[in-house]
Design a protein that fits this description.
The complex is a heterodimer.
Chain A (H helix, E strand, L loop, with lengths): L1 H8 L4 H22 L8 H11 L3 H21 L3 H24 L1 E3 L2 E7 L2 E3 L1 H18 L8 H20 L3 H7 L3 H6 L4 H19 L2 H18 L1 H6 L1 H29 L2 H10 L13 H26 L12 H4 L11 H34 L3 H25 L17 H19 L7
Chain B lengths: L6 H27 L2 H10 E6 L6 E2 L5 E13 L9 H8 L3 H15 L5 E4 L4 H10 L6 E10 L6 H4 L2 E3 L2 H6 L9 E3 L2 H5 L1 H4 L4 E7 L5 E4 L15 E3 L3 H10 L5 E6 L6 E7 L12 H10 L8 H4 L2 E2 L5 H11 L13 E2 L6 E2 L11 H6 L3 H12 L7 H14 L21 H8 L19 E2 L1 H13 L3 E2 L4 E4 L15 E2 L7 H16 L14 E13 L2 E15 L6 E7 L9 H14 L4 H12 L6 H21 L6 H4 L34 H9 L1
Parallel strand pairs in B: 2-10
Antiparallel strand pairs in B: 1-8, 2-3, 3-4, 3-5, 6-7, 8-9, 10-18, 11-12, 11-22, 13-16, 14-15, 17-19, 20-21, 21-22
Classes of the chains: A mainly alpha, B alpha+beta.
């Protein structure tokens, strides 16, 4: 017994485990604070205990998921670390298969088409697939024959990431699909030229500018910028003609994106309500084209707009009313009386913001930041590419989830339904992130052995 | 192994830290810098619920509650919780049909949504309440909510107590928006006059509401709540039994009775007839009942005791005698050789007595109410040789009359009192273009002409006589429970007004003796009570009204004033019965009964028959039927004009429905069709403007 536990615990990074447990407990507490309801004739403690025992309340269920996830974690720690390297590609194929199985088998729940129902258990392959993509990407990058400096390898790596994202978009889960793009951080670490990331960033800036600025004036501004660039680069241009063509090409690209690509994406790729949310985040009204949108669409959009604007507003009120030290556990008026919809899942941060104020939120976010930085540190101490790439994958996915989720509740990002790792209510999400983390811990524990 | 990418880990770390920093900045902005969010959250979730205290109780002088609080029940419904119920049975309990049931549920949902409670039926009748209470467990979503309601245990003193009603916009504005829509305030009577004391202090409870505006729980266990402080009780001078007797005596008559304690100004009873059952304006049917009362031309809501303008008649005579005696124009031996008519002026003034010597001296003249004597006395007062001017004489007389509390409001603790009228020189100048003399207004001496008073004023003036010169402003409330120095409301009623104490006691004694003779041997022997010396004066006042554009002389008003006992006056009473004839016939026995009831606390058995005789006599004037017809038909016509709906006017066009009105005194036939453009009504009736206004409302 002793020797066995010694072998399990050997090399395990306990700081990660501690942070994991703390975050899960904070999650259960927040869900408790958001959904707890007093019963007459019982003290708060009695009612809370009854709730835990009955397993009918959300917080008791989350506690149960936590226990299941912990068992799964221990199970992962017991497996051989080489198992994950060996089976990564198989898992990836399994994940893609699951994703494809969604199309014939899905059940329509709350507007998403990405869930397969097994009795009372909802399986969301898009959520689970993150683990597999992370493994597969690490596997590909760690192959001896991969030369990541070559565009071909870069293309294949991107394809590994983008294919499941594309399938997820087809399942009306744009939010989850966006998560996959966080894997580009891993590729960046492994040598993807920063040019691509900068290009991506520029594209994002251009999209926002397109939303904010009237299209003709934006075109004029872009032209002005191009003219200025030509003016300032006139010496280089005299020396090398290609610089001029580069500027010209960039200008043409920008204008194309601004005039044609963005409208195309908004009209044909995204759902009207998603466009609406994006517009709401930058603080503008969605310019409607009454000739192209049907009455039903309009009504649907109006409803969704109301809902998303209301959500963000109430969430901001909840967080803002917390003040510096917060109102205390179970004292939040906003979060306890259902003003914030979805507050146990996507808007769970409101409960923390209202109950514990700026001070509590700072501590909470610090824990997350600590987790991320710890994972990056762990990644950097790995001796194999697979381990490092996998670790970065975990860090990137979690980072994306945390940033987008928190920004969404404080009105900095459009409302995309993605959960807060370890904290939001939901079995699939908790188990997925636990698996991600425990594989990391397992691989890290074996970092010395790889050389053997 | 691309080792050269090592530096990129730093970049990634920086990206992580940078974005977290942005989030922290925004959090700092939301939570620490901006304060609007906590206010928004309060607005979102906190509901300051007003808690209304119970209103104060009004007691009579023997601590019997005249105006009390009781609990009635509203049937509430939360539509979302209503399910699986036997609608038919429920409807039978409530005595309504299922269509009505559905309509009410729908309107509840429209008003307050499915999840919030709405009133399904308000102020349940006691029988229905007990029936429902037994069966309510069967019906989910329905419950009873108690509501405090005012109740008048004696069904009496409606005009004194007044009623409460919802605030209107004028009250809201006047109160500086202290009140809110839906609040109940005193709308008349003591309820209005003592509103600040009776209402108590409203409390506030902070409740937490949820996203559907349902009240969920108390905020911080009521730490920030202000408790409601119950309204304070009023102790009045009213003797509810005397009040009930007064109201009983006046039933089926138009008139008023006022009884005052002369030594304190406390009002023992104040009845105005026709009146109404005050409980009609509290229960479930109050709107309907109120509408009925407003549309009645006999005006049951009108408090004649403080608003009725009557000719004072012969009850003025003791005052006239006092004025003349004080001015030294007559003395107690003065007499007048009257043979049934006063011929001192061009227009003869008739006197009811014609036997020689009925006005041989002042006491006899008062006892037999000699018109000639007092016409003469008044003329002498106006033509006082000391002034050499009728103008100055009349002004002097007016000063006296005003000192007796006539011609201006007494300042009683009831709202909307009227002041009556004591004519002055300008009024006669205007009417007679400056050329008038004492003969022009000679009938002022017998309380006619342009002099009008309210019953309260007559009673008050008799108090001054009984007190030999001083009075306290008539009022109901003796004290407020828990009174402090900050309650200044009662101060003015505790102030002695020594208006006519300069008249000597002997002078008063002379007149008071004459008033005692009125009962002992004069016009009001019917009012005699064995063992009590009553000083009284009857009055019979001529009056007219205008119906269908014709002035009609109506039957005389019957008046009576008295105080008793003579030695130590405990009660002063003024009675007026409209169009009832001689003062001695109706008013005098009423006054006497009131005095006896108050002083002896009970009535002799043989007097009970007298009470019944008076109470059952119907003295409602005939012309009311005609007035009602005019009012109703003009209202119907107004309705036709506004809505082009002829259904209401139709029955008035059918001649069969026209009520027969006996021609009052003169013989002209009433015109076939009421003149719709102009129908001046009598002095005691609302003028056209008011009537039309009410029609529209």
């Amino acid at each position: 017994m002793n020797t066995k536990s010694a072998t399990i615990s050997k090399g395990i990074d306990w700081s990660l485990v501690c942070i994991y447990i703390i975050l899960c407990l904070i999650g259960i507490m927040s869900i408790f604070a958001a959904t707890f309801q007093e019963k007459e004739g019982f003290s708060t403690f009695q009612t809370a205990m009854q709730g835990f025992i009955s397993l009918k309340t959300d917080y008791s269920r989350q506690a149960l998921y936590f226990i299941i996830a912990s068992f799964l974690g221990v199970f992962i720690l017991l497996t051989d670390s080489k198992f994950f390297t060996a089976t990564a590609n198989l898992w990836y194929l399994f994940g893609i298969l699951l994703l494809l199985l969604v199309f014939p088998l899905h059940t329509r729940v709350k507007g998403t088409e990405s869930i397969i129902k097994f009795g009372s258990f909802n399986l969301q392959p898009a959520e689970l697939c993150k683990v597999f993509v992370c493994l597969a990407l690490a596997k590909y990058l760690s192959r001896v024959e991969t030369e990541f400096a070559k565009p071909r390898s870069q293309f294949i790596a991107s394809a590994i990431v983008v294919i499941p994202a594309f399938i997820t978009i087809l399942q009306s889960e744009t939010g989850l699909a966006l998560v996959y793009f966080s894997f580009f951080i891993v590729m960046f670490r492994e040598g993807l030229p920063p040019f691509y990331l900068i290009l991506g960033f520029l594209f994002g800036a251009l999209v926002v500018a397109t939303l904010l600025i009237e299209k003709n004036s934006l075109a004029l501004i872009l032209t002005g910028m191009a003219v200025l660039a030509v003016y300032f680069l006139r010496r280089q241009i005299r020396r090398r003609r290609s610089v001029f063509f580069l500027v010209l090409f960039l200008w043409a690209g920008c204008v194309t994106v601004q005039r044609f690509v963005v409208p195309f994406i908004f009209e044909h790729v995204l759902k009207p309500y998603q466009v609406q949310r994006i517009y709401a985040t930058v603080g503008k009204d969605f310019p409607l084209d009454p000739t192209k949108t049907s009455d039903e669409d309009l009504r649907e959009m109006e409803k969704k707009k109301q809902a998303s604007v209301y959500n963000v507003k109430q969430s901001k009120i909840a967080i803002g009313s917390g003040g510096f030290f917060g109102k205390g556990l179970l004292k939040g008026t906003q979060t306890r009386y259902d003003f914030v919809p979805e507050q146990r899942t996507d808007f769970i941060f409101c409960t923390i913001g209202e109950g514990f104020g700026f001070f509590g939120s700072m501590i909470f976010l610090s824990i997350y930041l600590l987790l991320l930085l710890r994972i990056v540190t762990i990644a950097e101490r790995q001796r194999s590419v697979f381990s490092r790439a996998y670790s970065y994958g975990v860090a990137s996915v979690m980072f994306f989830h945390i940033i987008i989720n928190v920004c969404m509740t404080i009105g900095l990002a459009p409302v995309i339904g993605i959960p807060l790792p370890f904290v939001s209510y939901g079995g699939t999400s908790l188990i997925t992130f636990s698996v991600l983390l425990f594989i990391l811990i397992r691989i890290d524990a074996a970092r010395q052995m790889v050389l053997r | 192994m691309p080792v050269f990418n090592q530096s990129r880990s730093t970049i990634i770390r920086l990206i992580f830290i940078g974005l977290f920093f942005i989030i922290i900045l925004q959090l700092f902005n939301l939570q620490v810098i901006s304060s609007k969010y906590s206010e928004l959250a309060r607005e979102n979730a906190l509901f300051p619920k007003r808690v209304y205290p119970t209103r104060g109780i009004i007691y009579d002088r023997k601590s019997r509650a005249i105006l009390d609080n009781t609990i009635m029940y509203d049937l509430m419904v939360i539509p979302a919780e209503v399910k699986n119920m036997d609608t038919l049975e429920f409807c039978q309990l409530l005595e309504m049909d299922t269509a009505e049931f559905k309509a009410r549920i729908v309107s509840a949902i429209i008003k307050n949504t499915r999840v919030r409670p709405s009133i399904f039926e308000d102020l349940l009748a006691p029988a229905m309440h007990s029936r429902l209470e037994e069966n309510l467990w069967k019906y989910k979503g329905f419950y009873l909510q108690d509501r405090p309601v005012r109740t008048y245990p004696f069904n009496a003193a409606a005009h004194i107590m007044g009623y409460i009603g919802e605030v209107d916009s004028a009250i809201l504005k006047r109160s500086g928006y202290f009140y809110q829509l839906g609040d109940y305030v005193g709308r008349s009577g003591l309820e209005q006059a003592y509103e600040p004391i009776l209402m108590g202090q409203r409390g506030i409870q902070y409740w937490i509401k949820d996203n559907k505006n349902r009240l969920v729980s108390r905020y911080e266990n009521g730490k920030f709540d202000t408790p409601a402080i119950a309204g304070r009780n009023l102790r009045t001078f009213v003797d509810i039994e005397v009040q009930q007797l007064a109201e009983k005596l006046l039933s089926s008559k138009i008139g008023a009775i006022v009884a005052i304690q002369p030594k304190t100004g406390g009002i023992i009873a104040m009845a105005s007839s026709p009146d109404y059952n005050p409980n009609d304006l509290t229960g479930p049917d109050k709107q309907k009942n109120y509408a009925g009362l407003v549309l009645d031309v006999s005006r049951p809501l009108f408090n004649r005791a403080i608003k009725g303008q009557y000719p004072v008649g012969s009850t003025y005579k003791p005052l006239g005698a006092l004025i003349a005696l004080d001015e030294g124009i007559i003395n107690e031996r003065s007499g007048y050789d009257c043979h049934g008519v006063y011929l001192g002026c061009a227009r003869p003034v008739k006197c009811t007595e014609n036997w020689a010597g009925h006005a041989a001296n002042l006491r006899l003249a008062i006892a037999h109410s000699c018109n000639s004597f007092f016409s003469n006395t008044f003329r002498l007062t106006v033509d006082n040789p000391a002034f050499h001017s009728a103008r100055k004489g009349l002004t002097k007389w007016k000063e006296y009359a005003n000192a007796f509390g006539l011609g201006h409001r007494t300042g009683i603790d009831l709202p909307s009192e009227d002041g009556g009228n004591i004519p002055d020189t300008t009024q006669y100048d205007k009417e007679y273009r400056g050329s008038w003399n004492s003969c022009t207004m000679v009938t002022l001496g017998i309380g006619q002409d342009k002099m009008t008073v309210t019953p309260l004023q007559i009673a008050n003036s008799i108090c001054i006589v009984a007190n030999k010169g001083y009075f306290y402003t008539p009022h109901f409330v003796e004290k407020v429970d828990g009174e402090t120095t900050r309650d200044s409301l009662l101060d003015k009623f505790r102030q002695k007004h020594e208006v006519l104490t300069h008249i000597s006691d002997e002078t008063y004694e002379t007149v008071i003796s004459g008033m005692q003779d009125v009962v002992d041997q004069g016009t009001a022997m019917i009012a005699k009570i064995p063992g009590i010396n009553i000083c009284a004066k009857t009055g019979t006042a001529e009056n007219k009204t205008v119906i269908d554009r014709r002035v009609i002389q109506l039957k005389d008003h019957s008046l009576f004033v008295c105080f008793a006992p003579r030695e130590n006056p405990q009660i002063a009473v003024a009675v007026i019965v409209e169009n009832a004839g001689f003062g001695a016939t109706w008013a005098a026995p009423m006054g006497s009964l009131i005095v006896e009831k108050y002083l002896n606390d009970t009535l002799r058995t043989e007097r009970l028959a007298e009470v019944d005789r008076i109470a059952t006599a119907n003295l409602m004037p005939d012309f009311l039927g005609r007035l009602q017809f005019i009012a109703d038909s003009s209202r119907a016509e107004e309705w036709l004009r506004i809505s082009h709906d002829s259904s209401r006017i139709r029955k008035f066009l059918n001649k069969q429905y026209r009520p027969y009105v006996p021609p009052p005194t003169r013989k002209k036939k009433t015109p076939a069709q009421p003149d719709k453009k102009d129908f001046p009504l009598g002095a005691i009736l609302p003028d056209r403007k008011n009537l039309v206004k009410r029609n529209i409302g």
